[in-house]
Amino acid sequence: MATVYKIHPAIGIARVGNSPEEFFVGPERIGERPNPPGGFKDARCRVKRQAARFRIFAHHDDGTIEAITKAKADITWTVHLVSSKAPNNRGNTESAADLTIDPGPRTLTGPDQRQEFDTGVVKFIGASPTTVPLGEIRSDNDNHLLVLGGSGQSGSPRGDALSGYFWASKGWFDDISDGSVNATIKLKSDGSTPAVSGAWVIAAPPKFAPYLDNVITLYDRVVQAMVDGGLLPAPNQTSYTQDVYPILQRARDTEWVVTIPAGAMAWPDPVTSDALRNAIFTSLKAPGGGGQDMPQLNDSGTLDDRLTAVQYAHMKRWNDNRAEWTGWRWKPASEVRSCRASKQADSIRRGRSSHPAIMSNPSG
User: Fold this and answer.
1) Integer angstrom CA distances of residue 354 from 11, 27, 50
2) Residue 246: which region, alpha, beta or left (left: phi > 0; alpha: psi -120 to 50)?
3) How many degrees, rounded to 5, is the angle at CA 245 between CA 265 and CA 295?
4) CB 192 within 8 Å of CB 165
5) What is the mean pLDDT of residues 149-159?
6) Mean pLDDT highest for which of 34-43, 87-96, 247-256?
7) Is the pLDDT of residue 132 over 60?
8) What is the pLDDT of residue 166?
9) Residue 330: its pLDDT value, please?
10) What is the reported pTM?
């Protein structure tokens, strides 16, 4: 089997912000927290954008992984950001093409370059076409890719009123976007041009509680979608460290943004007693409906305020004392950062959360 070249992460999360120049690279490993120099806002209190950084790794036959930089290959990056929220079926009479903000792909052919997604237009009946910038791409000195979203712009060219909330309001747009990330490489060692597996980027809203993780992460959603689509077998084994403890800790952390009775989730780790395991499990909302009231999340009307079926099954095995307890301790980001490249490449695929109503761009 030949060496396989892949872009990592498979799905990168950028975040919009209204600081025109200041930005920071978002978390890239499990447990890592953003820590932008000078804080999350610039000197004028404008929100810094979070960039998604993409890199290419060579996956060799012997299981080793090698980072590909400008020293090893000529790299050309192509990104296609699109905002396709406005065409969502909410009573619009315009065509999907008129409401899709699509500036087309942008390409970088070497280090220290920059291209903007600044030509996309949205067209509402009764209003002039509106140009909506979706952000930009940059390459750093090693020819890694940085994708930055827009400025957090939203509006209604006709002056339509909001109908309770954005998603239900026809006549409105914003600059949330997503799209394909692709690359071509020419290896300097032999001049060959092997194929590179592509990736995806999401330019989501700012994360105003940056040190909290959602109880249900984007990774959890993708795993569930793959299981539902027959692309991945449903897990039949559960690790307390990898599958249960993260859910418990993220649920516990919601007390910083949701009113929860004092002491309601003040259990010590690891949770081993039968009574406490059963109390926690029976408090959960069931994936298909019913159950009690945990986790404390908002419901968009699609029962997305409860654990995925895969997560719920992990909790059920844990409640039945069928989880693997060995080595339960959760590793902090500092330990993950010190691991070898193969583990880093895997870790940057996980632990991310985003926002509803994205990942809708069919391009790429």
Assistant:
1) 11, 13, 12
2) alpha
3) 50
4) no
5) 95
6) 34-43
7) yes
8) 66
9) 52
10) 0.84
Q: Which amino acid is at 215?
A: V
Q: Give the chain's radius of gyration (CA, Å).
A: 22
Length of the chain (residues): 364
Q: Hey, what are 108's tokens?
A: 């970088």
Q: Structure tokens of 98?
A: 């008129």
SS (H, E, C) the chain: CCCEEEEECCEEEEECCCCCCCEEECCCCCCCCCCCCCCCECCCCCECEEEEEEEEEEECCCCCEEEECCCCEEEEEEEEEEECCCCCCCCCCCCHHHHCECCCCEEECCCCCEEECCCCEECCCCCCCEECCCCEEEECCCCCEEEECCCCCEECCCCCCCCCCHHHCCCCEECCEEEEEEEEEEECCCCCCCCEECEEEEEECCCCCCCCCCCCCHHHHHHHHHHHCCCCCCCCCEEHHHHHHHHHHHHHHHHHCCCCCCCCCCCCCCCCCHHHHHHHHHCEECCCCCECCECCCCCCCCCCCCCCHHHHHHHHHHHCCCEECCCCCCCCHHHHHCCCHHHHHHHCCCCCCCCCCCCCCCCC
- Other Cβ atoms within 10 Å of 215 Cβ, number: 24
Specify which residues 11 forms β-bridges with: 200
